[in-house]
């Protein structure tokens, strides 16, 4: 949804850019006058209100995010990074207002923090002196964007605004089709625990920190980098941490090759001397690392395999070795090896379960080392991580049934989630039940067989209809939640289109000892309360004891 940061004068902008570029930014060489002229042309294109899709990357526009009398308008969208951005702008001194069509937890958090958020979009929500910050999902017909265009107000994409908020910091951009929120949240919390006082903008609430955004006094700025709309190409990070390059968002990219190519471009946007941290376990990320080494970029990899060095600029490999798994914990060793054979080994004890979470921790640890934290100290700080919102988040227990909510919405994410959840259910001597809400018709159509295979890891599966987000049913005739149910082996999965009725249906199937998951990126997150209410209102059948199968 949206943001606004009132305008500085064009003269002030030009003077600042000329002075800074002729004399050099921090850690950069001064630019030639011809280069400065070219960059000013890019700035002028933005000042003249080019369409959002045509805006150039903003690393060239080094200007204050907040000045006296400026106003920031942002959406309170429950998904994505907008709530974090709103908080960051407010912490930098901006007057922040915003709107959201439906409200939700993020909306409530912003309201509680004193930000001026309102329900519903209307032109009256946009002060005439403000700069509007929008996401890709915002259509030109939106009344708030339309009035800003009509008035000639500044309009920024949220990634551009975040890039401005991060200027002057050691920017760590965490990218990948999945794992971004956990990895970035883990890194932000660990750096905080290690005394680094980082800034961060995370797409979910870091539980231990109580927020998804903070402007810290330290050098590091950790943020998710959204690949879905290519907006991660607006960043110039010091560290690009890539969890995976598994094709997704093919409605935007068209082909897996185009998706991978965007990540190559992302790595090329590292500041001079910056570092790519890539997961060698993922074939796409491994190819990205190889490409970066070919181009002479600094690269460090992490994964479960032994190191296989790719070239001169491949500086190190961090190997994850799981030593024990528990229902609520994971222990591992992290072994960092350099091409000359030198090794550093530390112990890692996580308070959250899952091999995939431990792999995310290996990436976060590697980034922490680059930021100057000692190896064991960084591992100890990671051990304090308590998870992020909507990532295996407990919603409560009723009639002996534990209810957990998770944001997983890609087949790989669901497979990893259910593998972990299976161990938790077994420790309870119960079954694994899943209420799944698919996200996007295009993703449902593209990955239906893989969704079916992943969901087969559960004992009971109920699938609601698709959460459309930015898409419409008319463009995908015949694609619905039943498309996935038909791909679940065994024929035991059920399609219940209405999401609330789906919650009632799975609650009726639950027994004491079971682990019940609500899964998906849409509004399925609200259904845990429905399930718990049903369970609480329905006593266990006579003779049924907790733990019975």
Structural account:
By secondary structure, the chain is α/β, with parallel strands linked by helices. It has helices spanning 10-23, 33-47, 82-91, 105-112, 143-151, 158-165, 180-193, 250-253, 256-268, 283-294, 355-370, 375-382, 411-427, 441-455, 481-485, 499-509, 527-537; strands at residues 71-73, 95-100, 116-119, 131-134, 155-157, 170-175, 199-206, 211-214, 220-224, 239-242, 275-279, 298-303, 314-326, 329-337, 343-350, 393-398, 401-406, 432-436, 460-463, 494-495, 515-519. Helix 15 links the parallel strand 19 and strand 20. Helix 11 (355-370) crosses helix 12 (375-382). The relative contact order is 0.08.
Can you give keywords for this protein?
549 residues; alpha/beta; Rossmann fold; UDP-N-acetylmuramoyl-L-alanine:D-glutamate ligase; ten-stranded mixed sheet; six-stranded mixed sheet; 17 helices; 21 strands
Element layout with pairings:
Blueprint: H1 10-23, H2 33-47, E1 71-73, H3 82-91, E2 95-100, H4 105-112, E3 116-119, E4 131-134, H5 143-151, E5 155-157, H6 158-165, E6 170-175, H7 180-193, E7 199-206, E8 211-214, E9 220-224, E10 239-242, H8 250-253, H9 256-268, E11 275-279, H10 283-294, E12 298-303, E13 314-326, E14 329-337, E15 343-350, H11 355-370, H12 375-382, E16 393-398, E17 401-406, H13 411-427, E18 432-436, H14 441-455, E19 460-463, H15 481-485, E20 494-495, H16 499-509, E21 515-519, H17 527-537
Parallel strand pairs: 1-2, 1-4, 2-3, 4-5, 6-9, 6-10, 7-9, 10-11, 11-12, 12-13, 17-21, 18-19, 18-21, 19-20
Antiparallel strand pairs: 7-8, 13-14, 14-15, 16-17
